[in-house]
Design a protein that fits this description.
Elements: H1 11-22, H2 43-55, H3 62-65, H4 71-87
Helix pairs in contact: 1-2
Length: 100
């Protein structure tokens, strides 16, 4: 997957990206799962995940990244940005095409 569509990702699509990037079984990526406590994801892996999401067109601002504790938090942050992006083009969280 190189470019994401303009429509917001479903939770299933979002967690599939997380599962691939973090090498965690898909069934463990439930909304209430804590990245650190439940999934044993360290800060380096979280930073790598954020960079990978950005490469795919899903950017999460650094100030919001520190507030993300669970898989559900990450998805809600993504959705909030996707909604802002549909209201104002160029939002940092909005899915975007990389290349024209």
């Amino acid at each position: 997957m190189t470019n994401l569509p303009n429509a917001a990702l479903s939770f299933e699509e979002f967690r599939a990206i997380l599962a691939e990037e973090l090498a965690i079984p898909l069934e463990q990526l439930v909304p209430g799962a804590s990245f650190v406590q439940d999934l044993q994801v360290d800060s380096l892996a979280l930073a790598s995940m954020m960079l990978r999401l950005e490469e795919l067109g899903v950017a999460i601002p650094l100030e919001s990244a520190w507030e993300i504790q669970t898989v559900g938090d990450a998805y809600r942050t993504y959705l909030a940005g996707a909604a802002q992006g549909s209201a104002a083009e160029g939002s940092a969280l909005a899915p975007r095409h990389t290349g024209a």
